[in-house]
Amino acid sequence: MNTQAVVVLGGAGLIGSLISRILKQYGYIVRVVDRRPPDFDCEFHEMDVTQPFNHSGAVFRDAIAVVFALPESVAVSAIAWVTRCLPSDAVMIPTCSVQGPFFKALKAAAPQQRFVGVNPMFSPKLSVQGRTVAVCVEDVQTPQSFIERHLMEAGMKVRRMTPAAHDELMALCQALPHAAILGFGMALAQSSVDLDIVAEVMPPPMRTMMALLSRILVNPPEVYWDIQLENDQATAQREALVQGLERLQENIVEQDYERFRSDLQSVSKVLGKRLNAGAVDCQHLFSLLN
Question: Could you tell me which residue ranges the Prephenate/arogenate dehydrogenase domain spans (predicted)?
């Protein structure tokens, strides 16, 4: 019987629940700290992590790790009081979509504290089988951590990287597509066309964009706000997106088909061998929509 304890701050949320269930599966004592109880059996401590109680140290008794399943700013603000309750060999595990700010704050507050960031690259509502999890470590050559081992045992794929490399990757893979979808939504909101008519006639590309937009809108806005705000490298991606739209506008205004064609060829060259695979994926997606 595993008697090791892991504290999950924000353990009643989607990601916190996912991590908690995996840890419970492998026999850990899971202590969920949240303002509301989770929907699974565990040791629950009702607490606002932004206003910890004086006796909160008892929650961390014998804990080998703390999972910060919290928004980036809240996770960073909790570092100071959490590290005071733990030995230096306890592992700090943020699940933030942006890892750099937490890592820097942790190194400033407790340089010896161990750090393993975990960012599931999929919705916690989906099956975990075959899904990729980005794992952030200060040195990618360090031995595998217990959380990595259990994520892999649960069926997930682990991709290791430094916090800086993670945030650069997330700026491209999350901030950029989300910005494009949000921009599409804002343009859509300005249209005077009856959306009931749009729904009758929209082709698969429009339907796909509508689906992506709707998925964002049904989730809490703070998730997407943090992705855009907290990642310093997201600014460059949004600027690149704006520049791309401006370039397209110039091509059309100037009726410069050759430059338009050249731009598309440049993008195709960047995609390389992924071009045909992406076209097959799109065809499959469109066939499902139809």
Answer: 4-282
Q: Which two tokens stand for residue 276?
A: 């045909």
Query: 210 Cβ partners below 8 Å, 6+ apart?
Result: 202
DSSP 13: S
CA distance 123 to 132: 11
Q: Is 40 helix (H, G, I), strand (E, B) or coil?
A: coil
Give the separation between CA 201 and CA 198, rounded to whole angstroms: 5
Q: Tell if the pTM clears 0.70, that is, is over it.
A: yes
3-state DSSP assignment of residue 135: strand
pLDDT at 1 over 60: no
Rg (CA), the chain: 22
Q: Which CATH architecture has domain 5-161?
A: 3-Layer(aba) Sandwich (3.40)
In sign, the C-alpha dihedral spanning 207, 212, 215, 217 is negative
The rounded distance, in Å, linking the Cα atoms of 211 and 232 is 28
